[in-house]
Amino acid sequence: MSNKLKFGLLGALGYIAPRHIQAINNINAELICVSDLDFNLAQQKEFHSKNVETFNSLEEMIKYHQQHSLDYISICTPNHLHTEQIITCLENNINVICEKPLALSIKDLDKIRKSELGSSASIFTIMQLRFHESIIQLKEKITSQSLEEKNEVILIYATTRGSEFFSSWRGSENTSGGILFEFGIHYLDILMDIFGQVINFNVNKLSLNQANVLIEHENAKVLIMINVLSKEKLEEMGQEEVLYRSFTINGEEFEFTGGFQDLHTRSYESILEGKGFTVEDASKSITQISKIMDEFEKGSTYKPILNNL
Ligand SMILES: NC(=O)c1ccc[n+]([C@@H]2O[C@H](COP(=O)([O-])OP(=O)(O)OC[C@H]3O[C@@H](n4cnc5c(N)ncnc54)[C@H](O)[C@@H]3O)[C@@H](O)[C@H]2O)c1
Ligand 1: does its nearest atom lie under 6 Å from the Cβ of 79? Predict the structure, then answer.
């Protein structure tokens, strides 16, 4: 019998699942079962040809686990399903690697925390930007500098999505959590990791396809601009799709659009090395996003401290 770690994967037919399947292969573990809502015959055949069982629910996968002892379940389902699915896995003492965001509220994150305490299993999340070479270099540069004034930072993330993006679960705040949970979470996480805790913030714009937020960290004043551009509108205008990620720090630009290929594998490796990102790691960005969204709902208030940005 193989002594490889055994994995199950939820949301196996989605966009991000192949990165997880590749990571499971790359760490020399074994994917033994997958679940999604509805496999067609060809998809079933494809998985079965690799000795991977297919299921239509987590409950079926848990029953399979009772005979085949899964070590981990990787969760790649829509954001609003994560909390409940994580808790079910933890209740069955199966370790979990869940895509971001672990939860869409502080309350749900607390439920996960409690569930982990009562389980012999652990929960880890994917925060792959922390492994991006340009971000690592940037952090080294910033943390080694002596600071007289706060860094002035502009973070731009622009991407393109077709209408199917907005008509799917991502197009509703109830299911995706909104643009900050969907996209901003990666950037909030690395900004706090590099520039320290958030002291103050001001939300200028927050919609499903645009976020424009000023944030004051311990070591920086940051303007975050996230834009999800419509593929159809760009086509109408004869424009190419846009994908762009950059930091401008005190006038100097660091572009990091590429370099994402192996970051899921790196994330899995770090979990096996005992250095995976935990609920506590995830809670910083989730808590901050929840605060920003609450503030925006109340009606954004002017914060003079950011006046000079
Ligand atoms: N780390 C990253 O950079 C990154 C990038 C993209 C997506 N994500 C995250 O990955 C997750 C999945 O995103 P995606 O883009 O692959 O979405 P997707 O819609 O392409 O895939 C989700 C899959 O889950 C399936 N599904 C829905 N309900 C299910 C259930 N109850 N049980 C099993 N399967 C179910 C859907 O049928 C679909 O195949 C999201 O949480 C998203 O935020 C992370």
Answer: yes
